[in-house]
Design goal:
Strand content of chain A: over 45%
Order of helices and strands of chain A: EEEEEEEEEEEE
Low-confidence stretches of chain A: none
Mean pLDDT of chain B: 93
Oligomer: heterodimer
Shape of chain A: globular
Mean pLDDT of chain A: 91
Largest sheet of chain A: 6 strands, mixed
Strand content of chain B: over 45%
């Protein structure tokens, strides 16, 4: 069965420090990979996605994620976080030919001054 | 485009009452998903439609829940009768090309 694992439920970090949020998936078929962000009392917003091509994808606000097929990972990174990055981050995977997304349990990023 | 529209944004009701949540997806997106989010269970897919047809309703918790999509621009999720354990945030999302989904702002349901 396909699944997504986000090992860290919460990641505290100081402002301007680097951060990595981990995501691993299990699948025997080709996948599409996504990161979503949810700010308090809001819906999920698409942060970035990997469909094909370059394994390194970037968002407009400085986040990046790298698809590693051999390690079945899609970790999210940012070299310097801001207070405003405090939110919950969800990794998700879908399988080519299927529209349904499988979500991880989420990682809460807490950025403090 | 206004994005996915959900109404109401907040709903407070008493146990036993019928609750209807509404969703208007982004025009041209042919798949629609209903999710429920709680602290205990996280994000759960309840049901999804493709071209207005229900494809997978295996996540619908019980017969008290029903969902319809009478046309491409409107969907409802109904709970009848509602129970306190149904309290959650309910999200509607629609699917674009490349399998990404676009979420609405959610409806926060409280059943007393």
């Amino acid at each position: 069965a396909q699944s997504v694992t986000q090992l860290d439920s919460q990641v505290p970090v100081f402002e301007e420090a680097p951060v990595e949020l981990r995501c691993n998936y299990s699948s025997s078929v080709s996948v599409y990979l996504f990161w979503y962000v949810q700010y308090p009392n809001q819906g999920l917003q698409l942060l970035l996605k990997y469909l094909s091509g370059s394994t390194l994808v970037e968002s407009i606000n400085g986040f990046e994620a790298e698809f590693n097929k051999s390690q079945t990972s899609f970790h999210l990174r940012k070299p310097s976080v801001h207070i405003s990055d405090t939110a919950e981050y969800f990794c998700a995977v879908s399988f080519t030919g299927f529209q349904k997304l499988v979500f991880g349990t989420g990682t809460r990023l807490l950025v403090s001054p | 485009d206004a994005g996915v529209i959900q109404s109401p944004r907040h709903e407070v009701t008493e146990m036993g009452q019928e609750v209807t949540l509404r969703c208007k997806p982004i025009s041209g997106h042919n798949s629609l998903f209903w999710y429920r989010q709680t602290m205990m269970r996280g994000l759960e897919l309840l049901i999804y439609f493709n071209n207005n047809v229900p494809i997978d309703d295996s996540g619908m918790p019980e017969d008290r829940f029903s969902a319809k999509m009478p046309n491409a621009s409107f969907s409802t999720l109904k709970i009848q009768p509602s129970e306190p354990r149904d309290s959650a945030v309910y999200f509607c999302a629609c699917g674009g090309r490349g399998n990404e989904q676009f979420f609405g702002p959610g409806t926060r349901l409280t059943v007393l």
